[in-house]
Amino acid sequence: MRRMLVAHLLWISAAQAGAAVPALEHAAENYQQHCQSCHGINRLGGAGPALLPESLSRIKPDEIRSVIQNGRPASQMAGYANVFSPAQIDALVDYLQQPPATPPTWSNDDILGSHSMLADLSKLPTTPQHGADPLNLFVVVEAGDHHIDILDGDRFEVLARFASHFAVHGGPKFSPDGRFVYFASRDGWISLYDLHNLKLIAEVRAGLNTRNLAVSKDGRWVLVGNYLPGNVVVLDARDLSLVKTIPTIGQDGTASRVSAVYSAPPRDSFIVALKDVKEVWELSLAGTPDFEPRRIPAGDVLDDFSFSPDYKQLLATSRKAQGGQVIDLDSGKVITDIPLPGMPHLGSGTYWKRNGEWVFATPNISKGLISVIDFKTWKLIKEIPTLGPGFFMRSHVNSRYAWSDVFFGPDNDAIHLIDKQTLEIAHTLRPMPGKTAAHVEFTRDGRYLLLSIWATDGALIVYDSNTLEEIKRIPMNKPSGKYNVGNKIEFAEGTSH
Predict the structure, then answer these.
(1) H or E segment and range at residue 10
(2) pTM for the whole thing?
(3) Domain range holding 75?
(4) pLDDT digit string, tens, across residues 302-340
């Protein structure tokens, strides 16, 4: 009897496995018939975003299923609930999470072929045409329907709103004078926007899955870091034309994805962290740059990093090592490890002076605590317990508080205000109960701050940074990051770089 039961179960398993193949085959046919015209052959993207496992890795299957079924508001993506059965939608979700039959590639010719100029800069005014303070503008990412808002930071009114490519990531970066802003989307599109004239100037697709970009201190170069293909791409900042691609291959020949790229203005260089090789790269921009990397050994592969205030050290973190390390950029050596047990998102940490000495603080994405570290000794000063794991932390030189969310916890509608001198939670706000509160950015003078409510019926909430009085609510569709021009180009204390 037992043998018969086992045989029966094996037959069922084999039958189910055999049925899965035709289901995926049918899903491939449905993709070709209904999806390919927008999302491209081999799912590389076109009018719609790329639908590769690398592009969809952060999106839950239920969310993919919902988009296929119901469509995406304010986009060309219509719902297919009346076209596909639930089983067909499930199969399509599975199919999109499988690697394509032909491994995707993106060559220099592909980059060159994707480049487009959308406006002639020589014919546009060189001064702001909107009447707002150009250094107190905010660039706001509305993730819910993939749009960008340009916000007047004095009147808190939207000056312009335009569609972005799929999933802008890594934060927009600005030219040194604040006139231009550069965006990178997850599916590799780089966009150049003129904040004086509120116009898109140029676009190019630098890769298939992109982490982020950086702009050189002289505004001449843009560096793009890619997951797929694993490389960094140098673009001319004036028009996004291709200058050079550099495969991210370690000293031992191992190919790698790129974790992050940032500009280090005092060093006149770009810094690149590799995700699959224990190396940090520095690309010097002095003179006529050749963009050849200076290889700096790391203690482990790196997921993210931040700089010390003088840009001489990196504070780096690694998911594999479950901690952090400090790398001296001048000597090219790992100085010490730092206790970061909860995997911080270091690029979202912040620093300030406490008792005359620099400290760095960051929330942790897997533990409900904020780690505060002394920049001089690299010792942990304090772990501040919070209501849950957090993602973003921001402050301003003129604010007594550092604001930190609890993005990943059940209490994600709360935001903590940390007294920067006592290192205690001074206030906990719940701006919109039941909806995620996250990512703060201050006006240039620090008098006001903007906080995001991450929901489709969300908002930007404007607070007086001293009295904590709510000043205004601006309805938005899942606003995520927001970035003040002046704070960003001046590398202001407390903001992200």
Answers:
(1) helix 2-34
(2) 0.89
(3) 20-96
(4) 888 889 999 999 988 876 656 788 999 999 999 988 877
